Amino acid sequence: MPSPTRLLAFAASNSRNSINKQLVTHAATVLKSEINQDTEITILDLNDFEMPIYSIDREQESGIPEAAHTFFKTIGDADALLISYAAHNGTYTVAYKNIFDWCSRIDSKVFQSKPMVIMSASPGQGGGASVLKIAEDSAGYYGAEVRGSMSVGSFTKTFNTETGELADVELATTLRSQLAKLF
User: Fold this and answer.
1) For residues 103 and 71, is the Cβ–Cβ distance under 8 A?
2) For residue range 89-137, what is the model confidence (pLDDT) as tens digits?
3) Whose CB has fewer CB within 10 Å in the chain, the N or C terminal residue?
4) Could you tell me the residue range of the domain that residue 71 belongs to?
């Protein structure tokens, strides 16, 4: 019997009320309940990986923080990744970018050859498409195999926060088809 798939899921946001965390949590639940019941899910919170703002001076003076090593190892221990990117001014959040920058000093292939599905949600109609494009365009360079992606715009209209599920049938179908690409 093959071992269960270990899925690492997180929102690239440090907001306590992150719509991207709601989306990635829902997606992980759908994956486990409808696509691969043997999946073991770990959902990370970026707030557990706070560290100083990256600079070469800090790295030379103090080395790479233990939190970066832990985050990097957690990616390495996973079989697949599910990430929902929040957009701040059209690009990554500072919280995510800082963790990513520190991890890239361990190894530039931060994603360690993992297959992944990436997403983004936003309150506006664009659904974080700009940050999703940045992530998709650069993922291969950083050792990821993007197998699927999707954007969820107008989040408060398309996601039912009471049930924690996509309320938009077309988006729910798209989510399932993108998640199925992981296996």
Assistant:
1) yes
2) 999 999 999 999 999 999 999 999 999 999 999 999 988 999 999 999 9
3) N
4) 6-180
Strands 40-44 and 6-12: parallel
Residue that has been written with the tokens 């992150």 in this structure: 18
Question: For the segment 50-84, what is each residue's pLDDT rounded down to a tens digit?
Answer: 999 999 999 999 999 999 999 999 999 999 999 99
Domain count along the chain:
1
Residue 154 covered by a domain: yes
- The interaxial angle of helices 66-77 and 94-106, nearest 10 deg, is 80
Residue 36, in any domain of the structure: yes
CATH of the domain at 43: 3.40.50.360
Instruction: Tell if the pTM clears 0.90, that is, is over it.
Output: yes
- Is residue 122 within 8 A of residue 84, CB to CB? The reply is no
SS3 91: strand
Written as one string, the DSSP assignment of 146-161 is EEEEEEE-SHHHHEET
